[in-house]
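Narrative summary of target 7.
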Amino acid sequence: QLQVVESGGGLVQPGGSLRVSCTGSGFSLASYGIGWCRQASGKGYEGVSCIGASEGSTYYPSSVKGRFTISRDNSKNTVYLQMNNLKPEDPAVYYCTRVSPVFTYYYADGRYANDEWGQGTQVTVSS
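Modeled conformation, tokenized:
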């Protein structure tokens, strides 16, 4: 019954923007840290953003800092990842996950920690 569902992926031109969403089912996202991870073709998982519980601190690795923004809309039980100025290095399947409060800082250097995963949403950058 505890689930997260990712949505909003798609095809975007280089330099374009996209917002992906993580919506909770069966629990309140506001009570947990929520992280976004991605897996590009031929590469491992990379943490790209995390927000602490109750609109807490945010963390971004250098690869996305200044371009990606994580936020919450608790009324919709949703966490968003706004991705601007998308680059050829950004295409991947993006996943969201609950994150223990002791591990939220992992995302500051691209590491990740997870409790629950969604099915992921595909982001493609192409002209």
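Strands lie at 3-7, 10-12, 18-25, 33-39, 45-51, 58-59, 68-73, 78-83, 92-99, 121-125.
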